[in-house]
Amino acid sequence: MSQPSKKIEKYTALVIQPQVTISDDHSAVRKNLDRICNLIDFSVGYHWELPARLVVLPEYFMQGVTTPGKGEDGLDGFMKKAVTFDGPEIGRLCEKAKEYNIYISGGGIIERVPEFPDRWFNTAFIIGPNGKVILKYHKWHINASLGLGTSPHDILDEYSEVFGGDIKDLFPVVDTDIGKLGTMTCHDGCTPEVSRALGYNGAEVICHPGAIQEVEGVNEPWDFWTFTRRTRAHDNMCYLLGSNWGTVDHKFYPKAFCPGHSFIIDYTGLVLRRADYPEEQVISCPIDIESLREHRSRCNHNTWVDVRTEGFRQIYENPIYPPNQFPSGRPPRNLADKMKPLREVFLDVYGRGQFTPPAGQTVEDMANLHEKRIRAAQKIGLLRED
């Protein structure tokens, strides 16, 4: 017979929306960490009546990231800023977690992994109040046109041999005294699959670091960032805490490149708190895990108990974006290199009739168009060639 669950008291969750500084070396890393630690000191101290137990930080809060155009980093540029999880950078956050008896989650860590030394991973983490990293997650849906981090999918066979290939290995959830916590990073939240895997593994709170740019829609009337993540929370009947940059200090970016709008969304998809501007801020909200668990006990409009999986298997039987595109010894060198596999993807989605070409165009034309755009961008220096 199973044991009764233990009650989880309400607690305060904090989402930090910081300024991020980007540079070519570790000087910016120290500056960013100093700022984050000061904001943790402030926000934990301010919420003393209902103590803070969880802090969520954005993607690339420590090292920043570059994009196409002037300033695009190649693989070497990113590797110069890479850290390991046993180094002093993560160690500072572990000390903060232990000092305040809190969990700290963040993402976009440019991580060097000893098992795959020729590349870096975009890594999210959760640190426990014992001062130890209790969960690490390597971003799965890395959009091909941004960031040179390796997805587990890019080296799926090798990765699975080292870290495991089960759904619980790839999309881990940790059971804690403040609920079952999972994390996904930025582009992971654009489509349903990663959050669904976390929900399948039991996540009650999804910590969601992002570096969501205005070109992706962070403000009304589009605000893609909010409406998609409300859907992810609703679909999985879980809290979702999304953290974005406030402002950025980088010579090639506007200050509001990733213009805030961090939020805390509840298990019905309701936005409880939001920082509706591009500036530094900390938002906070009580988290009630017992209320979530009671909500999940009802059958009416329960988004899990009515799921009928058999009719959807064909969607995933065959690869769309194929795995193992960047095996050991062959990491992507630059963004243009990383986008090369998309030719086969375009041939597939147009070839099977899922997408229809514009008038007068063929399936082959659509794959060729992608390559022509890359070459044109390289010709005028908008994408790197080296």
Automatic annotation (TrEMBL):
| Pfam families, per database record | CN_hydrolase (PF00795)
CN hydrolase domain spans which residues?
Answer: 11-289
One GO MF annotation is: N-carbamoylputrescine amidase activity
* Gene3D superfamilies linked: Carbon-nitrogen hydrolase
Q: Which GO terms describe its biological process?
A: putrescine biosynthetic process from arginine
Q: Which domain of life is it from?
A: Bacteria
UniProt xrefs under CDD domains: nitrilase_4 (cd07582)
**Keyword terms:** Hydrolase
Q: What is this protein called?
A: Nitrilase
The species this protein belongs to is Paremcibacter congregatus
